[in-house]
Amino acid sequence: MMESIENNKRINAGRFSILYDLYIDLLGSLVPGLFSVIIGGTIIFLAFVSIYSKLFNLTIFSNKLINVSSVISALAKLLGSLHWELSIVTVITAYIVGTIFFRQDPKKPDAASALYVWINSKKKERPELAVQSTKTLPPYLELFDPEDKPKLFARLRSTLRIGKFTRDLGLDTQFPYLYLRCYLAARGLTHLLRFIPWCPSDKNTHSFRTKMFINILKIRLTGLFPDLSTDIVRNEAHVRLATSVWYASSALILLSIFVITCLILILFSITHIISFSILISLIPSLITVIFCVSLKIYLNKCIHYMRVREVIYVLEAANMAEIMRGEKLFNDLIEKDYSNKCLQCETIKLKTVNYPFTTQSVIKSRLNEKLI
Fold first, then answer.
1. Is 50 exceeded by the pLDDT of residue 362?
2. Which residues pair with 199 in a beta bridge?
3. How many CB atoms lie within 10 A of CB 80?
4. Which among 112, 118, 145, 285 counts the fewest CB atoms within 10 Å?
5. CA distance 42 to 185
6. CB-based contacts of 89-94 (< 8 A; 24+ apart in sequence)
7. Cα–Cα distances in Å, from 290 out to 108, 202, 253, 256, 329?
8. Is 14 exposed, middle or buried, given 0-12, 13-18 or 19+ CB atoms closer than 10 A?
């Protein structure tokens, strides 16, 4: 009887693993691939139409537009006759292109997002973030009032020079984040501190901070409690979707700039003047640039929060798994319990007063019971 139950668990875990991979691939590869192939293919096609029109002296202000329309109509009929074949080629191409974006390192968009979150935070909010500055701040970023934010010009500069600002500020954007304990403590989530074996103020614990630590938690939760892993998979898929679209937007911006440059050079060499029709032909590429820049700005606002949420979901699922089993399941991953040191942390001392359910007395009792 027990053996059949274990077999069923293994079969369910295997099915869950297959669905997990399909879901991640769908959101992380295929969707960004379709996004980039459709938009990129459209601006390239419209660029060729503009060049073709100029080569044969066909303009949108001439009766000869009928010739252009007939060409486009003939092309539409050809595409209609090849709709299945074209769909298959499009999906395959989109998957390949999307996989390239999917395999890019998520550190870069995450660093851009973490910098955006930090530089748009008030002074009083900075010690509560999962990513914090470890260097002396330059004068234009130094704040004196707790409610102050950096000036708008400094925030705009940071979006253009992400790498320089990250280095100058000493932001450690490596995942999982060094100041994750501070983030949890500032929000009253002290019951999860035990699952984070590193502390930013103790360099001896920094070696425990590794992405593999989070991945091992995911693997164990998937094998032992697939039901708890559903939200974890969903969060990871959304993170992958966001980072892949971030890279796809960057590629489309470069492609659009390239198309704009080629159109100006080719059309100017044909007409020898910058005419209104040339400017009209640039509109699709310009719209793509504006759209993709706006999309990257929006993604910079949310990617970091999505990755923090992903970690918190994993930690809470690990906590729920131990409650359901009634035993400690992850002690072998946590070399020592460093959560006692959090009791002396200024962040916890200051912030836990805002959470009635995590007052100092409650934290002391939990520490004594080794529950956090």
1. no
2. 202
3. 9
4. 145
5. 49
6. 90/34, 90/37, 90/38, 91/30, 91/34, 93/33, 93/37, 94/30, 94/33, 94/34, 94/36, 94/37, 94/38
7. 21, 45, 9, 10, 50
8. exposed
CB 301 within 8 A of CB 116: yes
Q: 320 is written with which tokens?
A: 């729920």
Angle between helices 107-119 and 152-160 (to 10 degrees): 170
- Residues 58 and 67: their CA atoms lie apart, in Å, by 8
CA-to-CA distance for 118 and 183, rounded, in angstroms?
13
Per the CB < 8 A criterion, the answer to whether 102 and 23 are in contact is no
**Please, which residues bridge with residue 202 across strands?**
199
User: Tokens 């999505």 belong to which residue?
Assistant: 306
Give the single-character DSSP code of 177: P
Would you call 81 helix, strand, or coil by DSSP?
helix
Give the pLDDT confidence of 282-337 residue by residue, as tens digits.
Answer: 889 999 999 999 999 999 999 999 999 999 999 999 988 888 888 787 877 765 55
The token duo for 189 is 């989530």
> Do the beta carbons of residue 181 and residue 169 sit within 8 Å?
no
**Who contacts 268 (Cβ-Cβ below 8 Å, separation ≥6)?**
274, 278
Question: Are 260 and 285 within 8 A, CB to CB?
Answer: yes
- How far is the C-alpha of 332 from the C-alpha of 146, rounded, in Å? 41
**Of the candidate ranges 45-49, 107-111, 137-141, the one whose mean pLDDT is the lowest:** 137-141
- Picking from 96, 51, 40, the residue whose alpha carbon sits closest to that of residue 253 is 40
In 3D, which of 165, 163, 164, 135 has the Cα closest to residue 150? 165
Predicted local distance difference test score (pLDDT) of residue 232: 85
| Cβ atoms within 10 Å, residue 351 | 19
- Which tens digits make up the pLDDT trace of 232-288? 888 888 898 999 999 999 999 999 999 999 988 887 777 776 666 677 888 899 999
Nearest to 43 by CA among 251, 211, 265: 251
This prediction has a pTM of 0.79
Backbone angles phi, psi at 7, to 5 degrees: -65, -40
Q: What is the largest CA-CA distance in the chain?
A: 87
- Confidence (pLDDT) at 297: 92
CA distance 171 to 111: 8
Q: What is the pLDDT of residues 52-65, one digit of tens each?
A: 777 766 554 444 44
